[in-house]
């Protein structure tokens, strides 16, 4: 997964940039590059593969400069080649970019009409040319960048340098992380503070929409052209890769990391709006033969599996069962040949899931049945990865908070990628449908980002939960597992008793619980069942219940007495469960903080459940 490092100093920063890239290697990447400005020239080296390859090239060419940008790339648009590696140059301008420019094709067409020649297949190159073009009407680099940013759709962090501005580094944050490292007579940027720890422990955490001009002596941050102040935070020298950074808790940090985490997870499988040829290539023969799917998981991962069941059956007509591992392993399940057994686990070490996997393999062997096993998890070196035929990693980065957040939403993204792959191989999903869903997947990080804008509103509503003893979550279709997940989150970190129900089950029991005191949380995306869900809301209100509704902005559901509505950006009903995970996570988080619990390490719970 890609990373940015950049700096402006008195001394040469070549080695600082290379060291910074090495410290970002844990994120995963396919190529790396660096550009330095020296005597009105851009000196650039790029290499496919490891940062060590780049380092060797830089040592050989001995490029030096006191202003520069560097990058590790995980290709999203265009193959991992040297030409596609960043930085990208337009004559006098060099750019590094994390993220995706969704409208790059139309920008590219316009720029080509103006005579710009593209040397890469990336979406990023348009940014370099756009800035170059804007500089024809102003000599001010910051102004040129500010002028072109509104044209860019998508999620991005940018680092920009220019040959005629040897003491100026411009940075932009919109949907991909970026932090400023504050030095003495020198300043830096990076997508992760970890990269800059050798040069500083003082950081400014940028916010969405920030545009920054760094010089050796100054840091100016602009929002809507207005200069603003952001605090400088000092980090403990012992800070590690898994630091909380600017956040009060790991859980909150991890909630906010979801746009990036999902982008990384889908980037490994997608090239533009198609699946990469090498994505799960070795599984193709096995996938061709499978007749059904059995998902085995625990806790939050089980909820991800429940959603995947809807997707498998609806999208590619493949029967899918989901079961809690601790039940599956002890109930003598019938193992059926030509079945794909999918284990889902954040750590890849969850004891019950691992035991269920081993048991399944033993039973299949005893009966000489041909089955395929697969792991979806966040740890490449885990036991499950080693012991299954195939695996698909969620590239969420370390998840420290016990309550799973980014591991869950990246599991959902990974499961959708798996379904696309199986649909492609078994020819049960048309190419156009694959393209439609991949386009939607690329859009998800931005929608999550917009959904996170509701944080303050959810904090305000959380106050109404803090004295409660019980809570009900309701949803239909793929929102039913989100209701279960919301209830699980709330109970595990706030210790409020919570239940998740399929809204259609309301009359079959839980309606008896509804009274003045019990909040009822409703998940209401724009889908075929919205009207039925609205009837369920009426049933709750008629019994004096108080509703907290996370609703599609076009659902027509409005605030009224004892009905509090948080608008969620419109998203296809297919991918809505990924997006609706965000408000339930934020709600649980804020309620727990207000109740003063140990959010990251709730009582009695552990992160990686390696015991039964
Ligand atoms: N879209 C750019 C940057 C890739 C990225 O952010 N990867 O995680 C590219 O494909 O070069």
**Total count of strands:** 27
- The total tally of domains equals 3
Percent range of helical residues: 25-40%
Estimate the strand proportion: 15-25%
CATH top level class name of the largest domain: Alpha Beta
Mean pLDDT: 93
Question: Largest beta sheet: what is the strand line-up?
Answer: 3-2-4-1-10-9-11-15
**What compounds are bound to the protein?**
glutamine hydroxamate
State the end-to-end distance: 33 Å
Q: Stretches where pLDDT falls below 50 for ≥5 residues?
A: 237-241
Question: Could you state the CATH homologous superfamily of the largest domain?
Answer: Aminohydrolase, N-terminal nucleophile (Ntn) domain
Fill in the keyword field for this structure:
single chain; 612 residues; alpha/beta; Glutamine Phosphoribosylpyrophosphate, subunit 1, domain 1; Rossmann fold; 3 domains; 8-stranded antiparallel beta sheet; 7-stranded antiparallel beta sheet; 27 strands; 24% strand; binds glutamine hydroxamate
């Amino acid at each position: 997964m890609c990373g940015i490092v950049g700096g402006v100093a008195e001394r040469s920063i070549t080695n600082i940039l290379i060291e910074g890239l090495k410290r970002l290697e844990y994120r995963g990447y396919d190529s790396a590059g660096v550009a330095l400005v020296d005597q009105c020239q851009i000196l650039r080296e790029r290499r496919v593969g490891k940062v060590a390859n780049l380092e060797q090239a830089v040592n050989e060419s001995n490029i030096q400069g006191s202003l520069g940008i560097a990058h590790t790339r995980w290709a999203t648009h265009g193959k991992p080649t040297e030409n596609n590696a960043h930085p990208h140059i337009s004559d006098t301008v060099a750019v590094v970019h994390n993220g995706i420019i969704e409208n790059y094709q139309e920008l590219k067409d316009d720029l080509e009409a103006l005579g710009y020649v593209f040397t890469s297949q990336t979406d990023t190159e348009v940014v370099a040319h756009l800035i170059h073009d804007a500089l024809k009407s102003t000599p001010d680099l910051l102004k040129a960048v500010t002028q072109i940013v509104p044209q860019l759709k998508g999620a991005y962090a940018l680092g920009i340098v220019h040959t005629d501005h040897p003491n100026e580094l411009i940075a932009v944050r919109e949907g991909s992380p970026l932090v400023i490292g504050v030095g003495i007579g020198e300043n830096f940027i990076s997508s992760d503070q970890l990269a800059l720890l050798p040069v500083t422990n003082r950081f400014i955490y940028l916010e969405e929409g920030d545009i920054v001009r760094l010089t050796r002596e100054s840091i100016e941050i602009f929002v809507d052209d207005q200069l603003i102040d952001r605090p400088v935070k000092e980090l403990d020298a012992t800070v590690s890769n898994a630091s909380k950074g600017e956040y009060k808790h790991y859980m909150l940090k991890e909630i906010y990391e979801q746009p990036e985490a999902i982008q990384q997870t889908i980037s490994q499988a997608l090239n533009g709006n198609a699946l990469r040829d090498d994505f799960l290539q070795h599984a193709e023969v096995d996938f061709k033969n499978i007749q059904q799917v059995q998902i085995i998981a625990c806790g939050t991962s089980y909820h991800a599996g429940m959603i995947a069941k809807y997707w498998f059956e609806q999208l590619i007509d493949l029967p899918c069962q989901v079961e809690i591992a601790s039940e599956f392993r002890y109930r003598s399940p019938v193992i059926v040949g030509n079945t794909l057994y999918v284990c889902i686990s954040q750590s890849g070490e969850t004891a019950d899931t691992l035991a269920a996997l081993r048991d399944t393999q033993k039973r299949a062997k005893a009966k000489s049945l041909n089955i395929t096993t697969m792991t979806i998890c966040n740890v490449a070196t885990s036991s499950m990865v080693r012991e299954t035929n195939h695996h698909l990693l969620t590239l969420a980065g370390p998840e420290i908070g016990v309550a799973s957040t980014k591991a869950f939403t990246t599991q959902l993204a990974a499961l959708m990628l798996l379904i696309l792959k199986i649909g492609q191989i078994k020819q049960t999903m048309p190419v156009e449908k694959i393209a439609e869903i991949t386009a939607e997947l690329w859009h998800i990080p931005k929608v999550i980002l917009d959904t996170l804008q509701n944080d303050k509103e959810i904090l305000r509503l959380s106050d109404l939960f803090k004295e409660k003893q019980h809570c009900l979550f309701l949803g239909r279709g793929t929102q039913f597992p989100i209701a279960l997940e919301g209830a699980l989150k709330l109970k595990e970190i706030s210790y409020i008793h919570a239940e998740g129900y399929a809204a259609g089950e309301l009359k079959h029991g839980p309606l008896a619980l509804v009274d003045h005191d019990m909040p009822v949380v409703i998940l209401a995306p724009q889908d075929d069942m919205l009207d039925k869900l609205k009837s369920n809301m009426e049933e709750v209100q008629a019994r004096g219940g108080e509703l907290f509704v996370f609703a599609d902005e076009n659902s027509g559901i409005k605030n009224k007495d004892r009905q509090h509505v948080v608008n969620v950006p419109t998203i296809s009903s297919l991918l809505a469960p990924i997006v609706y995970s965000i408000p339930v996570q934020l709600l649980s988080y804020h309620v727990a903080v207000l109740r003063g619990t140990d959010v990251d390490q709730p009582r009695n719970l552990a992160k990686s459940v390696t015991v039964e």
